[in-house]
Amino acid sequence: MSTSASASQVVITPQQFLAHWQAHRRLTRRVIDAFPADKLFTHSIGGMRTFGEIAKELLGMATPTVAGILTDQWGKYEEAAASTKAEVLTQWDAITAELDAKFLEIPVERFQETKTAFGQWTMPVHDLLLYVIDNEIHHRGQGYVYLRSLGIEPPAFYDRS
């Protein structure tokens, strides 16, 4: 299989991929927003990180990954600096806009290239991006458990509108 791709060879277009990712991000944002402000960085179960700490991880992955894919400049992975629900949501919204602005700049053939992200994860770009999405989904599931433990009904998992 060739490492280059044309539009006729792709299963999903970059526009469709971004729309799928942003749909997951909308749902995760609703999960973050469902937390009482005083519980986002304090409530945990079984010694797991708080959902606020998890959100900082998610914030630290999205745009730095896209920037690295675009530029081949990979710094050290760092979680976002946020300590309140308002800060997390503000950063989430800014990253959403950045993804809309930058993701479609990735050349389609780059999705087949292998990159080492943050000096630690070596894989094809399409797998790297799917990893970022899968990681978000996994952690969103933790958020659902936390919300239920607080007596809060989480957003419907299938509603990514």
Summarize the structure.
By secondary structure, this protein is mostly helical. It has four helices and two strands. The longest helix is centred in the last third of the chain and has 25 residues.
Structure, explained:
With 161 residues, this protein is mostly helical. The protein has a single domain, classed as dinb family like domain (Four Helix Bundle (Hemerythrin (Met), subunit A)), CATH 1.20.120.450. Helices cover 53% and strands 5% of the residues. The protein has 4 helices and 2 strands. The chain has a two-stranded antiparallel sheet with strand order 1-2. A hairpin with a 3-residue loop joins β1 and β2. α1 packs parallel to α4. It starts with 13 loop residues before the first helix and ends in a 12-residue tail after the last helix.
**Can you tell me the CATH class?**
Mainly Alpha
Q: Report how far apart the termini are.
A: 36 Å
CATH homologous superfamily title: dinb family like domain
Strands across the major sheet, in which order?
1-2
Radius of gyration: 16 Å
Alpha plus pi helix count: 4
Report the sheet-strand fraction: under 5%
CATH architecture: Up-down Bundle
List segments where confidence is low: pLDDT < 50 over at least 5 consecutive residues. Answer: none
- Class by SSE composition: mainly alpha
The coarse overall form would be globular
What portion of residues is helical?
40-55%
How many structural domains are formed by the residues?
Answer: 1
